[in-house]
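I would love for you to help me understand the pair of lines that follows before we discuss the fold together.
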Amino acid sequence: MKKGLLFAMVLMLVACGVENNINFSTTQGNCADGSTNASYCMAVTIQNNNGGQNYINSTNYPITNLSLNVSGASNVGYPSAQGSSYDPNNCLGSTINPGSSCTFYLWLTGESFGVGTHTPITVNANYTVNNTLPWVTSGNSATSSLTVYETPGLQISSTGSSPAYNGYVQTYNNNGFNTPFKAESESIANAVANDNYYGFLYLAGNSGIYFSGNSNYAGNATGGSSSIKGATNLIISGQTIYGNPNGSLSNSVYTASMQKESFSWTQYATGLTNPTTNISAITGTRLFFANANNAYVCTQNATGNNCSQEGVGINGGNITALGYTTLSASSGTVYTGIIAGNAGGLWAESGVIGSPVNSWVSVTTGNGAAIANVIKIVSDINNNLYIATATGNFYLFPANGNVGAQTSSLTSFPWTVQNPVAMVVDNNGGVIYIANSSGVIYSCPNSTTGAGSCTSIGQSAYTSGILGLNIITQLTSG
């Protein structure tokens, strides 16, 4: 009888020998470099039997040889793919004893899904269970998995024309509209830029450059800066931010690398004159700004930092929008790629960037119709330009398009949104989001023809004062 009981106990232990109580926990917003509240980041802790080793009710052993793989999306950075920078605690090379844990990091490398989606991402952990009982074969392999989600959101920012919404941001995602939260100081937010490295949304105000991210978080990226404080224009390209300060430094452009949350600014170029708030464009290392009816280009070159006027002023009024794309030469005329809009029309600059003798050519539709009252020009990832007018008409000017009454590539979309004030292209969702002056948000089809109609997705909290629309994905646990 005793032999039978002993044999049964051994069988029970052997059967439980490869069981390992591995648990995952996540912290949204934590990055491998120490940044916090960033939408693109997530800390993942793998814990080996949080109750410790107990041979009676939980046969548990040290684990080693941890490896990871991610499925469901190609834009997730993780240790096995990106290396030690996402594994500062060396989880992949460590022994995790019973009751111990180790934390590694996930970090989105960009946008991959459309607004309104909630895409599951599976993190698979493979490891070796180092059994220590003499009657159990050592070196058993095991697998555990964790599911997280990519949740893209449309960020709606307010200028604060109503005091209740001064500097506030509201998000629209798969759960609808969330409650607006304070993302800026008491000064009016006057520029918006979308970041594709940490997933922060930056807002430039009169007294600082603020950023918001995960869990309604807001911070001041210029609190420790001795130079740039507030700004009238922000441009982000990759992991570099450019700011055109307000006040005494408004004739210059400053730049900083995106390292954590606070920037160390250096002067990039100088020579601007009273640049217009929130009107800018970029290509490579060239930045474009507006002043009244003049366009400026700022760049770094062999002769130093330089901002210069682009040719002559444009007819038809002050510049209200700027864009950049590649343009095809037409009838012997070469174009710089700079597109500008004003009350009098849409214009393409002919000549060479930086030349004082450049001129502006009217961009019309294929049938020669002029475009008046341009208020917004936005670009997609392929440098196609989308143009909105104050009367609610919309146009597409494709990259490598032609300028000219007989050969113009500018096409008119068949849909209208009355009184548009902000617009953004959802490249992954295949739509264009537009906000009107009453705070209604529309989803409009994005195609070469614009076929179809716009659909209202709902009323934002802002019945006036919408400044901008941006798209940022959150890495979430549910």
